[in-house]
Amino acid sequence: MPVTDETVWKGPLAGVRVLDFTRVLAGPAASLALADLGAEVFKIEPPGTGDETRTFPPMRDGESHYYLAVNRGKKSIVVDLKTEEGVALVKDLAAKCDVLVENYRPGVMDRLGLGYETMKAINPRLIYCSISGYGQTGPLKDRPSFDIVLQAMSGALSMNGESDGLPTKLGIPLGDLVGGINGPIGILSALYERERTGVGRHIDVSLMDGLMGMLGYIAQLAFFTGTDPQRVGSQHPNLVPYGIFPASDGSIVVACLTPGFWSRICRSIERPELIEDTRYDTLEKRRDARDEVNAIVSAFTERHTVDELVEIFTAHEVPHAPILGVLEALSQPQAVERQMVVEAEHAALGAIPIVNRSIRFTDAEQPAPAAPPVLGQHTDSILGELLELSPERIAALRAAGVVA
């Protein structure tokens, strides 16, 4: 009996089964992306508390905000991997899955008897993705990693913050979330390759590698100059004006990315003579006169409200944005039109708002994502439907503490 309703288009990965051994954030973000694309994700959780984030406050009726954020659309099965029968069960599941994702420290899955070579022997088509802080090799591979540590080690933290203060970590935990980007990219490419070769492969995703890869032009700037880029707050190291400017009732973002935008900015702030001013007529000159240019723009913006500036800059097609809080951002007309917040029926909490998937397909519409599961919500259905275990066998496993 299929575990999914094949009459509903779940997404382009419909029919792909994922065995998910991930916890906390980096790994769950990766399996979340696969679930959003239509894959059926079986989240393996330990007895007791399950994924550690189920205990992270604040809570509502025993459910954690953190767990809810990155586990929508998945199915929870509780298996004790410290038992031989538990390991045997997940091996049986792996034989019927396309992808395995884990984010333990290197070596842990091997010690559990679930390492790549073991699983490859069971299912040669299995794509096995390991996500870790520093990767499967190198002198740091066994060191614990957290988002702020990765930001520091990758060079990203050194550039974030005001020039006259301490470095400031990114508000979004990009050090972890990069695993939710690079993991699925590797998995999707391996799935494509498997169509030709018929075999899977092991993917080694390092979060530090991922953040270093995101340094982009910043790294190239360092190579060119031979020096570390310095912190410039919300400004750009080379583009001016670019950053946050004061308004009479708050602040607003203005970004000048090309020479054409400079002329629009000059007209919008009622200083058209600056367009031909030889002090500011190139990117390099504006960069070198950063304080002067920013002062000119600020002198205009601080005399107007944010709403007035939005109207002015919109009329002149100047890249800009008001600085929205999270709730305001999620309720703005653009987010509403794109249905970025949807309602899902949670087994314990009832109807709850969740953030919708961020990748859409224009020729077919996926149903809204399912709510994140309560602990062990799908244990019986997965064991019964996928492994075809009888109710009596499942009851015996539960009585023995192998599943819950």
Automatic annotation (TrEMBL):
Gene3D superfamilies: Crotonobetainyl-coa:carnitine coa-transferase, domain 1, formyl-coa transferase, domain 3. The keyword Transport does not apply. GO terms for molecular function: CoA-transferase activity. InterPro entries: CoA-transferase_III_domain, CoA-Trfase_fam_III, CoA-Trfase_III_dom3_sf, CoA-Trfase_III_dom_1_sf. Keywords: Transferase. It comes from the Bacteria. This is CoA transferase.
